[in-house]
Specification:
The protein is built from ten helices and 18 strands. The longest helix is centred in the first third of the chain and has 22 residues. The chain starts with 24 loop residues before the first helix and ends with a helix. The strands form five sheets. Strands 8, 9, 10, 12, 15 and 18 form a six-stranded antiparallel sheet that branches. Helix 2 crosses helix 3. It has three domains: 219 residues, no CATH class; 183 residues, Jelly Rolls; 80 residues, no CATH class. With 541 residues, it is of the alpha+beta class. 48% of the residues are buried. 21% of the residues lie in helices and 19% in strands.
């Protein structure tokens, strides 16, 4: 049952949960004929707006996704919020491609209720995952957009995301959750969730790859699991995380993507140093580890000790292979597209290095979807003990050649994923790595700091005073300078605007101390509430 009314013949009616939209085989088959044909290895077009029942065309990245994140799982850990942003964006794309619109409510997913509008942390989670969606490659080599189901689920007490028998399941929705990764199911063996039609191993219902638990995702985020691995855990190791592709008339992505910053864990670079068969003359002491002693930004970087096996040769080649932690049984997808974020060859890709070791060079390799592996030209590494950025333009053909170990052609195709960072040298070396990034070709305007009315990069007492000074007044619609900041602005300064300021109290453009700074301090919030109470008393006289 995709909404209210009687179930479609041959379909299973779903319960009233976060996403009860049930995929029925006849409907899905029609949908795939419409939008999957001739889509092998192709990117999904960017949707600048999402058509929402009762709201019209809503901007995707700056309005729709952050507000779904807030409405569906707004109080979760930050990695869980990022996972929610990807799931919400994917489900919206799926619905738009299937039927042209999406409902605001538990029939599909909740965009807005009277609980208010998204806060800064929800915009941050959206920005960090800008344009990212989930797909699966079927038996016919077609990329299929999944229906990224999610429900509240039980509240795990640990030690794993699988709830214990005594764990609370207040919404009775754990029965729909799929713990896909620990069961090791991929391809046709992934039956999906009973929320949708379940196929067979030889005839799968490809869009149905399972259901994420929001409470379980929150638990995983609190335990230090990245959003990528949260998504892999619930939807499967073979799920592809990829960015949507702007058309010629659309702007590219607007935000720099930090692929790994080592603050939470090793991200895409936690694989064993001996993983690659293309390493040359590496000794047994070669090792990597997160290090708090040296970081380009934040508290952690990665220390790389490279041991030259002099008995085998006079120089080494070390392929530091990229691949998320949950890359499948036996690391079957490590170094491949499925274990990494697939992106369009626009802008640049790079990272930061620091070393005092001499005679080192660095390059990188990219998996060019369907066309082998491409090699970025080697660059000399400065041995001055300072952090330096090493960057390769994805739009300059002179910087790329075919990798010697694979059948690439030196030309980047429609999409790529990071395969490895490659170091070369002639002696034992120590290198520090940090902040692997993908940078769009042109940055757009920075996302607004929600609640920062006076534009000083901080949400605090001056912003509160602007709201209070205009309390109960009619102002020009959307005039943030007069305190009309809730949602898109309704022309009235009241409780919704106040809640935006208080909900983002102490937030800053670059929060000192990380995301904890986005949470109001009790003492400051108490003062703000007291000011509001005094205002009401004064105006009632």
């Amino acid at each position: 049952m995709a909404g209210s009314g009687a179930p479609t013949p041959g379909c299973m009616a779903g319960p009233r949960v976060k996403q009860r939209n049930v995929i029925c085989w006849p409907i899905v088959a029609i949908g795939l004929l419409v939008f999957a044909t001739n889509q092998a290895h192709a990117a999904f077009d960017q949707l600048e707006t999402i058509k929402v029942w009762g709201f019209g065309d809503v901007p995707t990245e700056t309005d729709y996704v952050p507000n779904v994140v807030f409405s569906e799982n707004g109080g979760a850990s930050f990695e869980a919020l990022k996972a929610q942003a990807v799931a919400a964006r994917t489900f919206a794309y799926y619905k738009i491609r299937l039927g042209g619109s999406i409902q605001n409510g538990t029939q599909d997913q909740v965009y807005h209720t009277d609980r208010g509008w998204a806060r800064q942390v929800h915009f941050d989670a959206t920005d960090a995952t800008e344009g990212e969606i989930l797909s699966i490659r079927n038996f016919s080599d077609l990329d299929i957009l999944i229906a990224s189901f999610y429900v509240a689920g039980a509240i795990p007490s640990g030690p794993t995301p699988v709830p214990n028998p005594f764990d609370s399941d207040p919404t009775d929705t754990e029965k729909w959750v799929t713990h896909t990764y620990p069961t090791g199911v991929i391809g046709g063996d992934n039956p999906g969730t009973p929320l949708g039609f379940i196929g067979t191993p030889t005839n799968p219902n490809w869009p149905n790859r399972g259901a994420k638990s929001q409470n379980g995702a929150n638990f995983m985020g609190q335990q230090g699991t990245s959003y990528v691995d949260i998504l892999k855990y619930y939807y499967g190791a073979d799920i592809q995380l990829e960015t949507v592709a702007p058309t010629a008339e659309q702007p590219p992505l607007q935000h720099l993507k930090t692929l790994t910053d080592f603050e939470l864990n090793d991200g895409y670079f936690g694989n064993t140093t001996g993983f690659s068969n293309n390493n040359l003359n590496l000794g047994p002491a070669t090792a990597t580890q997160r290090a708090s002693s040296d970081a380009h930004d934040g508290s952690f970087g990665q220390r790389i000790d490279i041991d030259l096996d002099e008995s085998s040769g006079s120089s080494f080649l070390f392929h530091h292979v990229a691949g998320t932690e949950l890359a499948g049984p036996g690391d079957m997808f490590t170094g491949k597209r499925e274990a990494n974020l697939a992106m369009q060859p626009l802008g640049s890709i790079g990272f930061w290095l620091m070393t005092e070791s001499t005679d080192l060079t660095v390059g990188l390799t990219l998996d060019d979807d369907g066309d082998g592996t491409e090699q970025g030209l080697f660059q000399n590494i400065a041995a001055d003990g300072q952090w330096h950025k090493y960057e390769w333009s994805l739009e300059d053909p002179s910087l790329w050649s075919s990798a010697s170990f694979d059948s690439g052609d030196g030309i980047l195709g429609e999409s790529f994923s990071l395969d490895s960072i490659v170091f070369s040298g002639n002696q034992d070396s120590l290198v520090f790595l940090d902040d692997i990034f993908y940078q769009p070709p042109a940055f757009g305007p920075p996302s607004p700091l929600i609640g920062d009315i006076d534009g000083d990069g901080f949400v605090g007492i001056t912003d509160l005073n602007i709201v209070l000074a205009n309390w109960n007044q009619l102002v020009p619609k959307g005039d943030a300078s007069r305190g009309d900041i809730a949602g898109i602005g309704d022309g009235f300064v009241g409780i919704d605007d106040l809640n935006v300021v208080l909900g983002n109290w102490n937030a800053s453009a670059q929060p000192p101390g990380g995301l904890a700074a986005l949470v109001p301090e009790p003492g400051t919030s108490l003062l703000a509430s007291l000011a509001f109470t005094l205002l009401l008393r004064r105006r009632s006289v």
